[in-house]
Amino acid sequence: MSAQIPEVRSTDELRQKWMEPEVITGSEILLRSLLLEGVECVFGYPGGAVLYIYDAMYGFKDFKHVLTRHEQGAIHAADGYARASGKVGVCIATSGPGATNLVTGIATAFMDSVPLVVITGNVVSSLIGTDAFQEADITGITMPITKHSYLVRDVEELPRIIHEAFHIANTGRKGPVLIDIPKDISAAQTLFVPQTGPVTMRGYNPTVLPNKIQLDKLTQAISEAERPFILAGGGVVYSGGHEALYEFVRKTEIPITTTLLGLGAFPSGHELWTGMPGMHGTYTSNQAIQQSDLLICIGARFDDRVTGKLDGFAPQAKIVHIDIDPAEIGKNVATDIPIVGDVKAVLELLNQDVKRTDRADAWRAQIQRWKNEKPYSYKDSDAVLKPQWVIELLDETTKGGAIVTTDVGQHQMWAAQYYKFNQPRSWVTSGGLGTMGFGFPSAIGAQVANPDRLVISINGDGGMQMCSQELAICAINNIPVKIVIINNQVLGMVRQWQELIYNNRYSHIDLAGSPDFVKLAEAYGVKGLRATNKEEARRAWQEALDTPGPVVVEFVVSREENVYPMVTQGSTIDQMLMGDE
Amino acid sequence: MTTKNTIAVLVNDHPGVLQRVSGLFGRRGFNIESITVGQSEEVGLSRMVIVTVGDENNLEQIEKQLYKLVDVIKVIDLSSKPMVARELAMIKVKAEPPQRPEIMGVVETFRAAVIDVGTTSLIVQVIGDTEKIDAMIELLKPYGIRELTRTGVTAMVRGNA
Ligand SMILES: Cc1ncc(C[n+]2csc(CCOP(=O)(O)OP(=O)(O)O)c2C)c(N)n1
Q1: How far apart are CA A481 and CA A469, in angstroms?
Q2: Of A108, A304, A327, B58, which sits 20 to 30 A from A478 (CA to CA)?
Q3: Is residue B161 one of the residues assigned to a domain?
């Protein structure tokens, strides 16, 4: 059974209706403009400064508004919607506390290049700067974490600003754009002239097509390389370049790793895929990076969780960096062949020229040996549930076909390690900011974007408590997310660091006092199930899959389990702790 | 190698742009030695001149990060070209009548000007490159500097370029 959200009604007929120039309020302009941008669903929370906007939404049926229980829930839901659909996510909040509650979500989207349009109300223009009731300088607060922002000063500018905001959010390197609308602007009337044409902005012209000379250099380098390796990231997913990437690998047969955000950009089952790199990456990926003589980085940004100690990263490799954002090139790692452009466009051009070379055959064989010798592994048990086993259960029963969102912590890493992704936009996780509280509300957004797909949200018992109030949204709107809680009764990832780096000094990680998650679910009218051993786990999970609506499934797992391999801070990525096994 | 770099940034004359640019320098760990902003030759655009200290990589990152700002139209690394750079300083210096002739001597050699005379002080205005102003300040220090204000550097590429 599919979710009741969204009811998409933006038909051509409606568009015609919205295109009529008419004297209307700023609030109505906002709603019509959102419709013209193709918005299907807005996540939001009302308050004084946006009351004109909410008033305009009264009885409005042309897009859906989901009332979350916290602004943080709204923005993470909009984020999940955007990541799972490739469209711009939209959320709305009132001024002051409503707006500041969005900050974590804006920063989360900014770090992971997620296109959002964030609408906040503000106090009336004449009160701005007076410390008025519920005033906050939200454009000032969010300047470092938005791609761009607007404080609307004149209602006549509103249609242009909204049109520009969507353009900026979803082109070039994507990201969140904030529009702050003072209350008098949402009330003011003017002749609405719809904006739908191409956007021209003098200071904003992302480079899409790469430089041909640089491409030729790369083709040449590939033909000479003996140990080439591809490091692909979220940029592949965002540009829609996964098919071009597949073709690139098919033609060159260069082994490939995908970063945390790149999971799904290349099929996990493929023999040339080596798993995730970095801190909790595979032995194979990390060795391959360190020993490669040509490292082709595609739509990834050399995050420190991937590179480990920079001094000593990929020491033998000629580095190629393909990215839409020129500022990423050379930011962390010196680049030999910089290629600025849209990943999809770059790969499609490259695919016309590149060829497989036999020179790299010994390397390909070496990579297969590593893969066989050192896959991810854990010591299973029948006495206690192992979290890795739980993820494998989810993977086997859904054949990798679900959309998986996670929160942040050990469960996130196990999900990244043990769930196998075969399509892009099936994996929603907070990589750059590592935001606890993201997992569950982002699943709501992902489900709204994909009413007919299975959406599984995997959370720790800690992070689940950061936005659990959104269970109400699932119940009310029948959003059939399967909410998994990997309950180890502690802040697991912190426990792991305290064990390995702080000499077992377990400081403030005990989550005693957590609610009975089954009862918590039931309190919201959501089915709750619990499993403490394999048999119960299989049964509960099957029941969850067979249940049409939302379900919370709590898996009570081993408290002591650690995520391996692990590269501790300050080490190069080939210096890995491998755990017991 | 760290050097002093002067960059000109042509920006939209929108509210908050100075905050965007200076905020970017702060959070990316780039340092600003001076920053000046004012009208440019084109209506709707302002020109900022920023003096910053850093190495070559740093300068490249600054340029690239600036270009990410939607309100930034153009970034020019002036210090890589022949440029003229000027700064204005006003120096209120302690000057009892007996010291005045000596101070006037310094002012004249520097082709500076006295723009205000008080009973026990003078305001000296000096225009020039940073070194000249530094030198002038050094020479006036012995008399006692009561107040000092500098505009920061503004600059242009020489010739027809
Ligand atoms: C908002 C926020 N606060 C704190 C952290 C630091 N942190 C990272 S992982 C983690 C523990 C998460 O515990 P839990 O949700 O139980 O998941 P587990 O690691 O046990 O799977 C913490 C506290 C964070 N990432 N985000």
Answers
A1: 14
A2: A108
A3: no
A310 lies within 8 A of chain B by CB: no
Q: Where are the beta strands (DSSP E) in B16-117?
A: 34-39, 45-54, 72-77, 83-94, 113-117
**B contacts of A153 (beta carbons < 8 Å):** 15
Residue A78 structure tokens: 């909009």
The whole-angstrom separation of Cα A102 and Cα A120 is 9
Q: What is the CATH number of domain A212-374?
A: 3.40.50.1220
Q: Which domain holds residue B48?
A: 1-79
How do residues A41-59 score in pLDDT, each as one tens digit? 999 999 999 999 999 999 8
Considering only the beta carbons, identify the residue of B11, B20, B68 that sits closest to A143: B20
User: CA–CA separation, A7 vs B59, rounded Å?
Assistant: 50
Shared fold status for A212-374 and A387-564:
yes
- Tens of pLDDT, residue by residue over A386-416, are 999 999 999 999 998 999 999 999 999 999 9
B74 and B100 inside one domain: no
Give domain A11-192's CATH architecture.
3-Layer(aba) Sandwich (3.40)
CA B144 to chain centroid: 23
CA–CA min distance B123, chain A (Å): 36
Cα–Cα distance, A525 to A365 (Å, whole number): 54
Q: Given an 8 Å threshold on Cβ–Cβ distance, is A168 in contact with B15?
A: no
Q: Are strands A256-258 and A455-460 parallel, antiparallel or unpaired?
A: unpaired
Q: Hey, what are B17's tokens?
A: 């742009």
∠B29-B35-B41 over CA atoms, to 5°?
A: 130
Sign of the C-alpha dihedral computed for residues B60, B62, B65 and B66 taken in this order: negative
Strands A176-182 and A189-192, by their bridges, are unpaired
Residues B56, B88, single domain; the answer is no
Q: Domain A387-564, what architecture?
A: 3-Layer(aba) Sandwich (3.40)
Tens digit of each residue's pLDDT (9 = 90 or more) over A105-141: 999 999 999 999 999 999 999 999 999 999 999 999 9
Rg of chain A over Cα atoms, rounded to whole angstroms, equals 24
Residue A147: alpha-carbon gap to chain centroid: 16
Ligand 1, residue A414: give the atom nearest the CA: 21
Measured between beta carbons, the chain B residues lying within 8 angstroms of A201 are: 70
- Label the pairing between strands A482-487 and A427-428: unpaired
A563 Cα–ligand 1 center, Å: 14
Which residues form ligand 1's pocket by a CB distance below 6 Å? A 407-411, 434-437, 460-463, 486, 488, 491-494
With 0-12 / 13-18 / 19 or more C-beta atoms within 10 angstroms meaning exposed / middle / buried, residue A352 is exposed
Q: Where are the domains of chain A?
A: 11-192, 212-374, 387-564
Backbone angles phi, psi at A189, to 5 degrees: -110, 150
What the block records as the tokens of B38 is 């004012």
- Report the C-alpha gap between A100 and A114 in whole angstroms: 19
Cβ of A147 under 8 Å from any chain B Cβ?
Answer: yes
CA nearest to B88, candidates B142, B138, B32, B126: B126
E-assigned strand segments in A382-435: 403-406, 427-428
